[in-house]
Structures are given as C-alpha cells and as structure tokens.
TrEMBL record:
Residues covered by the Histidine kinase/HSP90-like ATPase domain: 535-583
InterPro entries xrefs: HATPase_C_sf, HATPase_dom, Sensor_HK_TwoCompSys
Keywords in alphabetical order: Coiled coil, Kinase, Membrane, Signal, Transferase, Transmembrane, Transmembrane helix, Two-component regulatory system
UniProt keyword Kinase present: yes
Pfam families: HATPase_c
Signal peptide range: 1-25
GO biological process, one term: phosphorelay signal transduction system
Annotated organism of origin: Pseudohongiella nitratireducens
Record field: transmembrane: 199-216, 223-246, 252-272, 284-301, 307-329, 341-363, 375-392
Name this polypeptide is given: Histidine kinase/HSP90-like ATPase domain-containing protein
GO molecular function: kinase activity
Superkingdom, natural source: Bacteria
Length: 633
C-alpha cells in the first residue's frame, strides 16, 4: 500500500475513534434521564466557618441557593477566601419526597468534584475520601458512591463538606438512584478515570525505562534518551489522575504537573526532530530555553494568574509541535516514508483527542468538564506504543545490518586470504613471465643487430641479385617481428594519438591538408598488442598509398566506436581507386594484416576519391562474424 494511502486510512481510523469517544461521552449524560435515576442540581451553599455537621444543619439564615454544577467562578470573594485559607464549603441538598418510593436501596453518585469531600445523610456520615496525616487528598478524578441507609428519617437532608484549594472548588450534579444501577456507573467511571490511567502509567514507565537502557547501551543515539523523556514526563503528569493522597500541597503539586506537560512537549519535539531527521540545533536550544522559562513561570507566578499563563504556555508548545508535525508530514508524504507517516498521524490524532477534551470542557453544556482527560490519556499510550514500535524496528534493523555486515566482513576476510594466496602465486608467475619476456627481447635485439647486419651486407653487396631480394624481404620480416614484440597492450587513445601524429607529419610534410575527426566517448579501452601493431601498420600503408598514388590534396581520418568495436575511415579527394587495374598497390597485403586480427577492411573508389574503412575490435572475437562497417557510419 502506498504511504499516502496509509496516512489517509490511519487518519480516518483515529478520527473515527475520536468521534466515537465524543458520542460515547455525550451518551453518558443521556442515561441520566432514566425514570428511576434523578439528577440533583438544586442545592444550598454556605461556608459555615469551622462548624460541625450538627451546627451546619441548623444554620438556615446563611444558606444561599445555587445550581449545580458548582464552578470556581460561582463563588463570591468571601467564599473563595475561606477555602483558600483551608476552610470548607458546605452544600445542602433536600432529596425529593418520592426518592424512596421503591424497595431498592438508594445511593448518591458523585462523579466529579474538586478537591475532596465528605457526604452526610441526616447528619450521619455515609461516604468520604478520608484524610491522612501529612498528605493532601486530591480526589478530583476519583468518583464516589454513597449508599443511603435502609431506614430514612425526614427531611432526607444531604450535607456535603467540600474541600477546595486556592483556585476554588467544583462539584458536578449529584446523581440519586438505585444502588445497584449507580454501582455499575461508579465502577465504569472508576475504570475509565483511574484504573486505565494506572495501567497506562505503568506502561509508560516500563517503556521509558526500557528505552533509557537502550540509550545507555547506545549513547550516540540520543533519540532513545529523548523518547524516555517523553515517557517519564508524561507518566509524571498522568500520575495526577491516579494519586489520591499526595505528599505535596495542591498549590505545589499543580505547577509541577504543568511543568511536566511542557517538558513532555519539549522531549516530543526533540524526539520527532531526530526521528524524521529535521532537527535544527538552534531552534531546539531556543525551545529548551522556552521550556525552562515555562517551568519557572509555573512555579513562581501568582496564583490568580496561574491558569491563564499555564494554558498560554501550553498553547505555544503545541503550536511549535504542530509546525514540526506539518513539516514532517509533508516530507514523509513526498518521500513516501511509512514510519514517518504513521508517527505523524499518531501525533495528529493525539492533538485531535486533546482538542475533543478541550471542547467538552470549555464549550460543552456546563458539565463537560467532568470528562476531561479521558480520551486524551487513551491517545498518549497509543502514541508511545507507535514510537516504541518505530524505535524497536530501527534497533532491530540496526542489529540485522550489523549481522549482515559481520557476515560480509567474514566473507571478505576469507576472500582476501584467497586473493593474497593467489597474488603470491600470480606474482611468482609474473616474475617468471617477465624474466622470459626480458630474455626474449634480448634475443630479438641480438637477432636484429647480428642477423640484420649480415642481411644488410648481402643486400648492399649485389642489389640486383635474387639473393639480395630475398635478404631484403627477410630483413623486413625481422624488423616487423621485433617491432611487434616491442608493441605492448595500450589504451585506444594512445594508439589513435600515435596514428594521428605520424599521419599528420607524413601527409602535411608531403603537401596534403590533413583533417582528424573522432566522436566523443571513452577511449581508455585497452587494445591488444597484436591488434595495435597491425592497425598501426595498416594506417601507415594507407598513408603511403595516398602519398604515392592518390594524387590527392585533402585527407580526412574519421574515428567512431561502439564499445569494443572501432571504425577508422580514411577519405581522400584523389583520382580514385581501380582495384582490378592496380593489383600491385598492396591491397592484398592490407587484407592479410586485417585477417590476422579478425578485422574487416574495404575500399570504395570513385572519380571524387577513395574511401577506405577499417573495422576492428580491441579484443579478439571468439566467433568471427562479418560486419559491414558502413552500417556503423
């Protein structure tokens, strides 16, 4: 499947998941409309100073009417100052007269509140979060189920002691209904809001520890360190949804949680930059400085400005991350990198899930804030799982590559040993061959000097004698043999340069205009010594024939080649060639030389001159085939 299609399919799947989550969240509130379940939204509120439950119940003049959900913005300055100083808020709810018309045991379900509370029914405590010494109860994410005693006395009054913080307090509408039905809802919310996060917290910590160990084994691959930073910082922030009794005060703990969120964004930025190879060190250092400033701001800013500054800082980090993701997504789609596409989609889906939570919290029907973080926390572990898969896949590929390289190295070592052994053997043979060649050249020189001088004496003694003619032919054959022995294998460029230089000297010296043409290409192919010798001789004899017999003024050499096959065309503007009328011009001798090297040679004579084409191969052909050189022109 093409990466672009993977991107589209994965994106649609995650968007569908987000939509299902949204509709599921919406359906949770719809269940409240069942006839046997009542949502209590009308209540009374008072601070009650430090009064006991019995005293609070008797205070009628200090109560004021409110409508749930209770938000921090609903509190007046005196109430906010009271809870900021460590005091409690008291809420009173009067249950409907028909609340206990059935025989079923009734219960109260408090599904979201901030920060902790204790529930009293007719002045008797029936549920609460409890307190521990030197601990701060942070039960905002823990639902509470309060079972109402079987015997109820009028007026069925419910008192709730709500403990807030310096930022205020919250309480969602209270649900009244059959205990067995609310027990199911309680267990569902406890699983959704606490148990799943506890499992995911352990998962993130385990993955972070594992990748940290990988980094310790491969210190140069800092991508593992950045990924472990993502896991640990997210785990710290996610612990806020799990911890019930915290050793820190709420005013100290919340800035630490938001600092962990910004550190998680920074680590995610560094990880993605290294994963997709889009890291820019200068921008990364700037983002690190911004994160340090964000952490200091979270912990030092006055409480009344904390939430505004915190979410503005988070927004900046998310925007920077979104820009990086847009860049990575574009590069991944263009280069068709499946890994980068999957990672980009996973991060984008996480942004969608958090946007869903933000919508529910800020733009819902007033109670949407109770569902915050449910879906976002489902997305982060999926994101971590995708990242872990990519890292493990890369680590596995690195191990496979190392194994292949190791096998290749072992193979090369074995081949090197074999080559060294062969090299010693070939060197020994080469030394023997060079010694034989040197001795052969010495014999050729001796023959040329000794026998050649004797033959020359015979020739000059009686030039007209048949014996002198035979001696002359023998001397020429001897010279050719010595010359052939002195002609080594050589590049085609060297052979053509020699032919061009000698032909130019001879033709221009005899009054001819000489032109040399050759097509561009690779002329470094090596020509065998025998081929080079005979081609050189053929060209010399062609030049000699032109000078002696052609009566030409212009001579052109044109060289073309096709890999190993070479064509040399010699064209003159002389009197033309009549091969049958001129049997003694050495044409048969040229054919003989061409046949020695399995070359083809032909002539075309006319009143405008003669064209001679020599077609040869740099290396000998196994099965000689006749090739018409004119087809190559």
């Amino acid at each position: 499947m093409r990466p672009s299609r993977i991107y589209i399919c994965f994106s649609l799947t995650l968007w569908a998941f987000a939509f299902c989550g949204f509709t599921t969240a919406q359906s949770q509130s719809d269940v409240i409309n069942q006839s046997d379940i009542i949502e209590l939204t009308q209540a009374q509120l008072t601070t009650g100073a430090d009064s006991s439950v019995s005293e609070i119940s008797g205070l009628d003049s200090n109560w004021r009417e409110i409508t749930l959900p209770l938000m921090s913005g609903d509190l007046n300055p005196d109430e906010l100052a009271h809870i900021s100083g460590g005091g409690s808020l008291w809420l009173r709810l009067i249950l409907p007269e028909n609340a206990f018309a059935t025989d079923n045991t009734q219960a109260l379900f408090l599904w979201r509140y901030n920060r902790a509370l204790t529930v009293y029914f007719n002045r008797t405590e029936i549920a609460g979060n409890g307190f521990r010494n030197n601990r701060t109860t942070i039960a905002w994410n823990h639902p509470l189920l309060a079972i109402i005693p079987a015997q109820q006395d009028s007026p069925n009054e419910v008192l709730i002691e709500l403990h807030g913080s310096s930022w205020g307090a919250n309480l969602a509408p209270v649900i009244l209904g059959p205990a067995n039905e609310l027990q199911k809802r309680y267990e569902s919310r406890l699983f959704m809001q606490v148990e799943i996060n506890r499992i995911l917290l352990a998962f993130a910590f385990t993955v972070g520890t594992f990748t940290l160990l990988l980094w310790m084994m491969r210190r140069k691959d800092s991508i593992y360190l950045w990924f472990s930073g993502v896991c640990f910082s997210w785990a710290f922030a996610a612990s806020h949804t799990v911890i019930l009794y915290n050793p820190f005060s709420f005013e100290t703990w919340i800035p630490l949680v938001h600092s962990a969120m910004d550190i998680c964004t920074l680590c995610l930025y560094g990880f993605l930059g290294r994963l997709a190879s889009v890291r820019i060190p200068g921008r990364e250092r700037l983002f690190v400085a911004w994160t340090v400033l964000a952490v200091l701001t979270h912990n030092l800013i006055p409480l009344q400005w904390f939430w505004i500054s915190a979410y503005l800082i988070h927004l900046v980090g998310v925007l920077v991350l979104a820009l990086v993701m847009a860049r990575v997504a574009g590069m991944a789609i263009r280069s068709r990198q499946t890994e980068s596409i999957i990672v980009t989609t996973a991060v984008s889906a996480q942004v969608v899930l958090f946007a869903l939570n933000a919508f529910q919290m800020f733009f819902g029907d007033g109670s949407g804030w109770d569902r915050t973080l449910n879906f976002g926390h489902f997305g982060i572990p999926v994101l971590l799982l995708v990242f872990a898969w990519v890292l493990l896949r890369r680590f596995s590929q690195a191990l496979d590559t190392a194994e292949i390289l190791n096998k290749d190295l072992e193979k090369k070592v074995a081949e090197s040993r074999k080559i060294i052994t062969q090299s010693f053997e070939e060197r020994r043979k080469l030394e023997l061959s060079e010694a034989a060649s040197s001795e052969r050249m010495r014999i050729y020189r001796d023959l040329h000097d000794d026998v050649g001088s004797r033959l020359l004496s015979i020739i000059h003694a009686d030039p007209g004698n048949p014996v002198a003619n035979m001696a002359r032919a023998t001397l020429e054959s001897l010279r050719q043999t010595v010359s052939k022995a002195n002609t080594p294998d050589q590049p085609l460029a060297t052979l053509l340069a020699d032919i061009r230089e000698e032909s130019a000297l001879r033709l221009e010296g005899s009054g001819h205009q000489f032109h040399w043409q050759h097509q561009p290409g690779n002329y470094q192919v090596v020509v065998a010594s025998e081929t080079a010798f005979n081609v050189n001789r053929i060209c010399k004899e062609l030049v000699s024939n032109i000078i002696r017999h052609a009566q030409a003024s212009h001579v052109t050499f044109n060289v073309t080649h096709n890999e190993d096959a070479i064509s040399i065309e010699v064209r003159d503007n002389g009197c033309g060639l009549d091969e049958e009328a001129a049997p003694g011009n050495g044409l048969q001798h040229l054919r003989s030389r061409a046949e020695e090297i399995q070359a083809d040679i032909e002539w075309h004579g006319s009143a405008n001159g003669t064209i001679t084409r020599l077609y040869f191969w740099c290396h000998a052909r196994g099965n000689r085939q006749q090739v018409n050189p004119t087809t190559e022109q």
